[in-house]
Design a protein that fits this description.
This protein is α+β, with helices and mostly antiparallel strands and 424 residues long. The protein has a five-stranded antiparallel β-sheet with strand order 2-1-7-6-5, with helices on both faces. It has a five-stranded mixed β-sheet with strand order 9-11-12-14-13. A two-stranded antiparallel ribbon has the order 3-4. It is elongated. Helix 6 runs antiparallel to helix 7, helix 7 packs parallel to helix 13 and helix 8 crosses helix 10. Among the domains are: 95 residues, Beta-Lactamase (2-Layer Sandwich), CATH 3.30.450.20; 188 residues, Histidine kinase-like ATPase, C-terminal domain (Heat Shock Protein 90). It has 14 helices and 14 strands. The longest helix is centred in the middle third of the chain and has 37 residues. Its main location: membrane. It is found in: Cell membrane. Its EC number is 2.7.13.3. This is Sensor-like histidine kinase SenX3.
């Protein structure tokens, strides 16, 4: 009996001790888990107050890195540019800059050309990266996309170079011809011949300057500020009158059809200049004793009816490689022929901008040796109300000043359908 009691007492004491030890171990484990560790201090950095708000309103792509080069914060623009992938900074030069800045605290800036993500194209993405310390452990990276700015600068540089070259030609010719006139002052026949050439060069110079002014005007002005319904038959008649003399000298027949009861909405002067340029090109590049036709019709489109003006010639035609560039400024299919006809290479660029600013487009169909058809599509006046004029002007067809300088990406769409039949 005494033995059993002793065993029971010993078992009770052992159970109490085990329970106490288990409770103490549980409390100790809980306290140890709540205690901040060295690892957690490094993996869960906190942005300084207000930094998150500032980064959210910046236009630059922003990335914040911690001591382990992990991304703590990144803007959506940084992901769009491909700077951040899998929680890491994916651009090695920027990552090295961040490490150097974290080491010495100095602000660094560099311009880089990065491969464009997911396009498969060879062109690069130009960026400017600036790295600065943010507190004692974080580094801030700001990235500006310079691609568009560089493209605009290249366009302007090329435009100035082209203008300088085009102006230099007639000015140089006038200078040489004036010297020739002075040297031939005793030869009336030579003076008359040189004076005639001077008039031709002066006319070419005047045309070039005027078309530069026209191009600047259609790019900078809002054509729908003074918009009005314009009768298509009046535009066609004005374009034909403008080209009647050169057409008569080459015995070219001009004919128009389908222009009655059609109206477009826009700036009358700009529309007349655009259609006149198309007709003038058709006459200048057509052989003698051929035909130039102007056809108009109404076509149905999802956004409203359009008026389609097609100018067809029986000229030399345009090759496929030239069709990709004919709407560029100063581009000529045949430079020698263009200079002989007095062309400046700006006429189709003006047409393109007029069409785009009016919410329309210009397209071309052509085959070498079979002629060309340029088609100008514009919104019909009857379908355009004053409240929707701004929407039409800034619609998908609109383009910016710099879009016409380099290659097929900058030109308007081209028609792939055969040329329409020209009414007699």
């Amino acid at each position: 009996m005494d033995v059993n009691a002793a065993v029971a007492a010993a078992a009770a004491i052992a159970g109490v001790c085990t329970g106490v030890i288990a409770m103490l171990a549980f409390r100790w484990s809980e306290r140890d888990q709540k205690r901040p560790t060295r690892t957690s201090l490094h993996t869960d950095p906190v942005l300084p107050p207000g930094v998150d708000t500032v980064l959210s309103v910046l236009r630059s792509s922003a990335v914040v890195l911690d001591e382990a080069d992990s991304v703590v914060k990144a803007s959506s623009a940084a992901y769009a540019l491909g700077l951040v992938r899998g929680g890491k900074l994916a651009v090695e030069p920027m990552l090295q800059m961040a490490r150097d800045t974290r080491r010495d605290g100095e602000i660094r800036q560099v311009e880089l050309d990065l491969p464009r993500r997911g396009t498969g194209r060879g062109d690069a993405l130009a960026v400017s990266a600036r790295v600065a310390p943010l507190g004692s452990r974080l580094v801030l990276l700001l990235v500006e996309d310079l691609t568009e700015a560089r493209r605009i600068e290249a366009v302007r540089r090329d435009f100035v170079a082209n203008v300088s070259h085009e102006l230099k030609t007639p000015v140089g010719a006038l200078s040489l011809l004036s010297e020739a006139v002075m040297d031939a002052s005793d030869d009336p026949e030579a003076v008359e011949r040189f004076a005639g050439r001077m008039q031709i060069e002066a006319t070419r110079l005047t045309s070039l300057v005027q078309e530069l002014i026209d191009l600047s005007r259609v790019q900078n002005d809002d054509p729908l500020e003074d918009a009005e319904p314009v009768r298509v038959d009046e535009l066609v008649a004005e374009a034909m009158d403008r080209c009647r003399q050169p057409a008569a000298s080459k015995q070219i027949t001009m004919a128009a059809g389908g222009t009655a009861d059609l109206n477009v909405w826009g700036n009358r002067g700009q529309l007349a200049a655009a259609l006149g340029n198309l007709v003038e090109n058709a006459v200048n590049y057509s052989p003698a004793r051929t035909r130039v036709g102007i056809a108009a019709r109404r076509v149905t489109a999802p956004g409203g009816d359009l008026i389609e003006l097609a100018v067809t010639d029986q000229g030399i035609g345009i090759s496929d490689k030239d069709k990709e560039r004919i709407f560029e400024r100063f581009y000529r299919v045949d430079p020698a022929r263009s200079r002989a006809t007095g062309g400046t290479g700006l006429g189709l660029a003006i047409v393109k901008h007029v069409a785009a600013s009016h919410g329309g487009e210009v397209t071309v169909w052509s085959s070498e040796g079979q002629g060309s058809t340029f088609t100008l599509r514009l919104p019909e006046a009857a379908a355009t109300s004053p409240s929707s004029r701004k929407t039409t002007a800034s619609g998908p067809g609109n383009v910016r000043d710099e879009d016409d300088a380099h290659g097929p990406d900058s030109t308007t769409a081209y028609a792939s359908t055969p040329a329409p039949e020209v009414l007699p």
